[in-house]
Fold this sequence. Notes:
Elements: H1 2-16, E1 19-21, E2 33-35, H2 37-56, E3 61-63, H3 72-78, H4 80-83, E4 85-90, E5 97-99, E6 121-124, E7 128-130, E8 140-142, H5 148-152, H6 155-162, E9 168-177, E10 192-202, H7 207-224, E11 232-236, E12 248-256, E13 259-270, H8 272-281, E14 287-289, E15 294-296, E16 299-306, H9 307-318, E17 319-324, E18 327-332, E19 343-347, H10 353-367, E20 372-374, H11 380-389, E21 394-398, H12 400-405, E22 407-412, E23 418-422, H13 426-434
Parallel strand pairs: 3-9, 19-20, 19-21
Antiparallel strand pairs: 1-2, 4-5, 4-6, 7-8, 9-10, 10-16, 11-12, 12-13, 13-16, 14-15, 17-18, 21-22, 22-23
Bound molecules: glycyl-adenosine-5'-phosphate.
The site of glycyl-adenosine-5'-phosphate has 19 residues, from strand 10, strand 13, strand 16 and helix 9.
Amino acid sequence: xxxxxxxxxxxxxxxxxxxxxxxxxxxxxxxxxxxxxxxxxxxxxxxxxxxxxxxxxxxxxxxxxxxxxxxxxxxxxxxxxxxxxxxxxxxxxxxxxxxxxxxxxxxxxxxxxxxxxxxxxxxxxxxxxxxxxxxxxxxxxxxxxxxxxxxxxxxxxxxxxxxxxxxxxxxxxxxxxxxxxxxxxxxxxxxxxxxxxxxxxxxxxxxxxxxxxxxxxxxxxxxxxxxxxxxxxxxxxxxxxxxxxxxxxxxxxxxxxxxxxxxxxxxxxxxxxxxxxxxxxxxxxxxxxxxxxxxxxxxxxxxxxxxxxxxxxxxxxxxxxxxxxxxxxxxxxxxxxxxxxxxxxxxxxxxxxxxxxxxxxxxxxxxxxxxxxxxxxxxxxxxxxxxxxxxxxxxxxxxxxxxxxxxxxxxxxxxxxxxxxxxxxxxxxxxxxxx
Length: 435
Ligand code: GAP
């Protein structure tokens, strides 16, 4: 039953063009996914809402977009070269590979075939490649495993250009890469994914309080965007779980069909990264407090979320099936800010040129202000179902009567209620509903 929901969401994603397997015509690249026409809209909306709440609506957080490729010394300073390992074991019989942390009881036996497992060996999760034409030592470079370091190495640039006072933060959204041993659960754990991260620099004595504030802030963000409260929880990390750079961390977890799993981690990274970069680069990265006239390393509070994981959580949470007149209606009850398409204009009769002409005219006009589609490829019932499955907020039907009374029928996704609205006030009506 529970597994079923995941299968249904995956099937809808494929059927309706949210998410496809990467390189599908070649048999697919396992655990790698491409976002289709609806998926990219949903993902872009999610990122835009995150950016708005964390950058535009605050005075103390600035946006950034740093390069994926960084100086190799960054990863020495950050500790990723030395510490970013998972332990892996291989089965000597079936050759399957396991992450030791995932092995439940007997860590010497293969959970699939019962064969003997090799001794646990560390495996660095960073993707290594070479810069330039020669694949030789000294040219090695890494795909970033987190966007965070791009913000730490720009700390000085921000101090020099924006002259911010503590507390202040940097925010960025971008790709990260990890050579995960056991990717899976659709887009939940992949080797290429997107992160939305904030590095919030604070006075060390304020760090504990700011950590709590950010945990609450980020938890509320998901609720405000429509995630059901009962499907979301906070989980503080035990000491053993903490990353090498963290003093404290809490995860925000979602109740996925495959179990409670991390959506976002909010950590107190202390001054670990800034101090390390100062030491390895030889640059003074201390903050100058011009009231106290002293220099010190700020602490960093880091809310770090995954774009792909959030998209998956919002899809699972929004997926609804309901009985309508003996039929099953599938509807994605996505928040209006996330819905990929805000409205669809549908002519009731596609063999009546004047209805089609009017519908196309209305759609063209709405497209100037909203993400709107025009569709005349089926009977109205079928068109409604199609829009429900992709979470379109409103269906606007143009019928014979529209030619006379200059009104259209607006159908609401969640209630299926319909009302007649004058074409001349349609934009204003939709604006009010959507903002
Ligand atoms: N800078 C801190 C950091 O990267 P993390 O807990 O390793 O912390 C942060 O990652 C978020 O990135 C996770 O909460 C998750 O949403 C996302 N994430 C991490 N690894 C991922 C993967 N393999 N696939 C998809 N998302 C991932």
